[in-house]
Design brief:
Rossmann fold, Hect, E3 ligase catalytic domain fold, 4 domains, five-stranded mixed β-sheet, 17 strands, flat, binds zinc ion
């Protein structure tokens, strides 16, 4: 295994111990691990100036750049230290990046494999990085990724039908025949036999096909395959949107930012079949809202304008061909097909978004300078405490302090240091909260929901709508189902 070694002092050691000494000890320990596990250490990155600022680790950035060449199998480090309490969003970006390159973390205690879900759960890699570095890092990685994608490399997880491989040091894909056979079947059924995605999913499930990340195919995953140009030899790189919903981070691909280039991997489907599939898909677009098995995408969102109660979905019956949205008090308010209300909500969201985006152009970004100032002066004080601490060491060595005085002095400096660190973290969290209230963030959130709404199932749609909408008020006076109705969409 080709590995990169990363050395730095942890926060606890930061102020106590001369840097060189700690790093030397760590290096010996890690080299012992390398020897025991038969690891080939290609390069070592060590942070020597860690005392200068807790929030600056240029070597980590360099290491990450090396990681993103795809030439290494693991990073060898002392521990996954809990330094940066960066946001869930950043944690996710780092996590995804490491997973993308399949890079493990090896410490003297354990090996963490980010591609394994079990490891992912306690994988707190975000702690290795501080927020500011991340921004620089993301920029550089994006550049690196773009270059690789332009050259035809495939960097994401292998899509169904393929396995990851490396050709001339370029990460790419090879056909995985047991799955590729099902991919061909999907396209054949869709294009030549006129089957819908639900039927196709049921059929290949019955034949024992298994998608990578769930146990069964559904119409969404089948549609996803039909639309993926990777099967005609293209490389697709999706830029992702990150949205925090109820404290959980979700990543959504951003279709308009999709980058498609000629890949270097073999196609599974010929271009003509693929193009025909895309045409059929476009025509089906509007019809494929419901297949009877899904739940209500508007569950818990729409309220009756008469009584204020939540409206529910009434499934289609003999008389009504499509599901209706109705008040739970029967006869309280005229009903409307669910899909009409859903379409009206989406249209309303697009309108609100347009207004929001115009506002944003003229708006001033939220002012966080007060936090920046507080953080920067706190960091100064940390530095000065560090130098005070080193002075107490000198005074002890020169015999001007006795041990008790030294310990007392040191403890008080350490206490002060800890409270300043806590203060910095608190200020950073407040700063993030202010930034998150920015209209830009709200707009990005709505954009990302709209981007993948069409390809999501009802449950996911409901989850996404709830993440941005507080309530939709529904009003209607005429009894005919096709009569006009009114909605008012209240955003969260
Ligand atoms: Zn009602």
């Amino acid at each position: 295994m080709d590995v990169l070694m990363y050395l730095r002092k942890s926060r606890a050691e930061e102020l106590h111990d001369p840097t060189e000494e700690t790093l030397r000890r760590h290096r010996e320990q890690l080299l012992a691990v390398a020897k025991r596990m038969d690891l080939h250490v290609i390069t070592t990155f060590e942070e020597v100036k860690s005392g200068e600022s807790l929030y600056s680790r240029p070597q980590m950035l360099a290491l990450l750049e090396a990681v993103s060449t795809g030439n290494y199998d693991a990073v060898l480090a002392m521990d996954v230290d809990r330094l940066g309490r960066s946001s869930m969003m950043e944690q996710g970006i780092i996590f995804d990046t490491l997973r993308r390159y399949g890079v493990k973390i090896i410490t003297p205690d354990k090996t963490i494999d980010p591609t394994k879900d079990s490891d992912a759960e306690d994988f707190e890699i975000e702690s290795l990085f501080a927020r500011r570095e991340l921004r620089t890092y993301k920029k550089r990685v994006r550049r690196g990724i773009n270059k690789s994608v332009d050259e035809g490399s495939y960097l994401a997880n292998a899509p169904y039908g393929y396995k990851k491989t490396v050709v001339n040091r370029q990460p790419t894909l090879e056909v995985y025949e047991p799955e590729a056979a099902f991919v061909r079947m999907i396209f054949d059924m869709y294009v030549n036999q006129g089957q819908g995605t639900t039927n196709i999913a049921n059929y290949i499930n019955a034949l024992g096909a298994h998608p990578a990340r769930s146990d069964k195919f559904g119409r969404t995953s089948v549609a996803y395959i039909i639309k993926n140009p990777v099967y005609i030899g293209k490389t697709v790189w999706n830029k992702q949107h990150y949205v925090i919903e109820n404290g959980v981070r979700h990543s959504y691909p951003t279709p308009e930012k999709k980058k498609i280039t000629e890949g270097i991997h073999p196609p599974i489907i010929d271009e003509e079949t693929f193009e025909r599939a895309q045409e059929i898909m476009k025509k089906q677009w509007h019809k494929k809202y419901y297949d009877g098995t899904v739940q209500n995408p508007l569950a818990g969102i729409v309220r009756c304008g008469n009584c204020g109660g939540l409206m529910m979905r009434h499934p289609s019956g003999r008389k009504t061909k499509v599901p209706f949205l109705m008040c739970q008090k029967s006869g309280c308010i005229p009903t409307t097909p669910v899909e009409n209300v859903e379409a009206a909500i989406l249209a309303n969201l697009r309108e609100q978004l347009a207004v929001l985006d115009t506002d944003i152009e003229n708006a001033v970004p939220p002012d966080v300078s007060v936090f920046d100032k507080a953080i920067s002066s706190a960091q100064h004080e940390l530095k000065s405490l560090a130098s005070q601490l080193s002075k107490t060491h000198d005074l002890l060595e020169q015999g001007l302090y006795d041990v008790d005085t030294f310990l007392e002095r040191r403890n008080s400096i350490n206490e002060r240091t800890e409270s300043i660190k806590a203060f910095i973290i608190d200020q950073q969290e407040r700063r993030s909260a202010v930034l998150a209230s920015d209209r830009r963030v709200i707009s990005a959130k709505i954009h990302s929901v709209l981007d993948i709404y069409e390809v999501s199932d009802a449950a996911k749609r409901n989850e996404m709508l709830r993440s941005i909408i507080d309530t939709v008020w529904y009003n209607k006076t005429e009894r005919k189902s096709s009569s006009p109705f009114n909605i008012r969409v209240i955003l969260r």
